[in-house]
Amino acid sequence: MWPYPHQVSLIAAWGLTKRFGDFTAVDGIDFEVERGEVFGFLGPNGAGKSSTMRMIGCVSDPTGGALRILGMDPSREGTKIRSRLGVVPQQDNLDEELSVAENLYVYGRYFDLPRSMLRTRIAELLEFVQLTERANDHVEPLSGGMKRRLTIARALISEPEVLLLDEPTTGLDPQARHVVWERLWTLKRQGVTQVLTTHYMDEAEQLCDRLVVMDRGKIVAEGSPRQLIERYSTREVVEVRTHGQVTVMAEALRRLGESPEAQARDELYERVEELPDRVLLYTDQGERLVALLGEVEHESVLVRRSTLEDVFLHLTGRSLVD
Amino acid sequence: MAPAAVVPSTRLAVEYWLLTYRRNWKGSLLTSFLSPILFLAAMGLGLGSLVDAEVGSGRDLGGLDYLDFLAPGLLAGNAMMLAVNESTYPVLGGFKWYRTYMAMASSPLRGRDILLGHFTYMAFRVTLASFVFLGVMAAFGSVSSPLAVLAPLCAALCGMAFATPTAAFVATRINADNFSTYTRFVIMPMFLFSGIFYPVSQLPIVLEQIAWLTPVWHGVRLCRALSTGSGMEWELVGHLAYLVALILIGTLIASRTFTRRLYE
Question: Do the Cβ atoms of A110 and B264 come within 8 Å?
Answer without folding.
Answer: no
